[in-house]
Amino acid sequence: MVAFIVRRIAQAILVMLVVSLISFTMFRFVGDPVNQMVGIETTPAERAELRERLGLNEPVPVQFVAFIKKAAEGDFGVSYQFKQPVAELLAARLPATLELSLVSALFALLIGIPMGVYTGLRRDHWLSKLFLTVSLVGISLPPFLIGILLIFVFAVNLQWLPSFGRGQVVDLGFWTTGFLTVSGLKALILPAITLGLFQMTLIMRLVRAEMLEVLRADYIRFARARGLTARAINFGHALKNTLVPVITITGLQLGSVIAFAIVTETVFQWPGMGLLFLQAVQNVDIPIMAAYLLMIAALFVIINLIVDLLYVAVDPRIRLSGRPA
To answer: Based on CB atoms within 10 Å of each CB, which residue in 41, 77, 188, 305 is the most buried?
Structure first.
C-alpha cells in the first residue's frame, strides 16, 4: 500500500510540474504583466521599478522556480482586473462551485445508477425505453441549451425557481453555504440538474452496459444454479462487479464537473470559480487564469488518487502494484 501511494504521489508531482510550466508560460509570455498592472501615465522609471520588484528581470528558470514556490504557498499574485490577491478571490468563489458540483454529482449518482440497474434488468419494459430516451436527450443537448430551457419552463413560465444567482447564503466564517436557507436550496436545483444531467445519462448507460455484460457471466449462471435469490444475484454479485468502471467514470466526471462548470455558472450567473475564470479570460487576467488551471489540475490529481485507492476496496483482484491478478 505504501509503495502504491508513493508511486501515485510521484506521478502526481510530475503532472503538477508540467501544469505549472504551462501556467508559468501563460503568466510570463501571454502579454506583459507590467502593462496590465499600470496605466498609460506610468513613467518608464516606475515601470522598470515594478518589473524589478516582480522579478521579471531574472532569468526564466529562476522565475519558474519562484513561481512554483509561491504557488505552493498559495500565492498566485494580484488580479489585474480586481486588484486583489488571486488566492482570496478563488477562496471566496470556491464554496459556490464545490456545492454546485457536489449536488450535481449526487444527482447523477443517485439517479443514474438506479436507472442503469433497472434498464439492465428489465430491458424490454416501457419504463426502460423511457429512461433510454431521456438519456439520449441528456447526451445530445448541450448544457447551455438545457439550462436555458429549464429557466424558460421553471423560472419564467411556472415561476417556481429562481433563474440566476445563489440565493441567500449563510456565512460560517470559513465557508459560505446555501444549504441552510430555502432560497439557497431553490437556487441550486436548476443549475445542479443542468450540470449533472450529462453525467447522469453517462453513468446510467455505463451501468446498464456493465450489468448486461456481467449477467451473462458464468459465475452468475452458477449463482442461479445454486438457488440464490434474484436480489442476491443482481445486487450482491452483478452490481458490485460493475462498480469499478463506474468509480473510474464518476471520479473523472467529478473533476470535469468542477472544471467545466463555466457554462452552467455563466447561464445561471452562479458566483463560482467558473464565472470568475470566464471574466478573467474576457479581461486577459492572467494570474486568475493560471491559478485556476493549477487548482483544477490539483483537483484532478487528488480525485484520480482517491479513485485508484477505491479500486482495491471494490475489487480485491486488482493488485496494489497496478497489475491485474
So the answer is: 188
How far is it, in rounded angstroms, from Cα 100 to Cα 69?
31
* pLDDT tens figures, 115-131: 888 888 888 788 888 88
Q: Is the pLDDT of residue 197 over 70?
A: yes
Q: Average pLDDT for residues 6-22, to the nearest whole number?
A: 81
Neighbours of 41 (CB within 10 A): 6
Domain ranges of the chain: 92-271+297-314
Task: Tell me the per-residue pLDDT of 29-38, one tens digit each, with 9 for 90 and over.
Answer: 666 666 666 6
More confident residue, 259 or 126: 126
